[in-house]
Amino acid sequence: MYGSFKRGDDGSTAVEFAIVAPFFIALLLGIFQSAMLLFSISSLHYASQNAARCASVNTIQCPDATSISAFAKSNYYAFGDSPVFSASKTACGNEVTGSLNYDFNVLIYRSTIPLASSACFPSS
After folding, report:
1. Domain chopping of the chain, boundaries
2. Would the pTM count as exceeding 0.85?
3. What is the pLDDT of residues 13-43, one digit of tens each?
4. β partners of residue 100
5. Spatial distance between the Cα atoms of 117 and 43, rounded to a whole number of angstroms
6. Is 116 within 8 Å of 98 (Cβ atoms)?
7. How crowded is residue 15: how many other Cβ atoms within 10 Å of its Cβ?
8. CA 81/CA 59 separation, integer angstroms
9. CB atoms closer than 10 angstroms to residue 121
10. 3-state percent breakdown (helix, strand, coil) of the chain, nearest 5
11. Is the dihedral of CA 73, 116, 45, 49 positive or negative?
């Protein structure tokens, strides 16, 4: 009676999977959220750089700070909250700064990560 119980391993795969699955799913979600965070940072930098360039090169499309901010928002392609952009003239030329709070959520771990970007393009 006890011998057949010890030798039976029919459900061991399901038990092992039940133990490992939550950690594996958390790892996959963490990788996905990290990729989205990196994409958001990259998109924020891209939008700031394009808006600073537009302010210096294309003064018809980007004549003032409001239109520069709108141009930057139209060049931000990531998900989540809408970033806040501000434009100003500095010693280096036209500077555009962008900021965003990214919500990093993986199962029970939740964190808000502040992102910031700054780009300056010389005035013509």
Report:
1. 11-121
2. no
3. 888 999 999 999 999 999 999 999 999 999 9
4. 115
5. 10
6. yes
7. 10
8. 28
9. 20
10. 50, 25, 25
11. positive
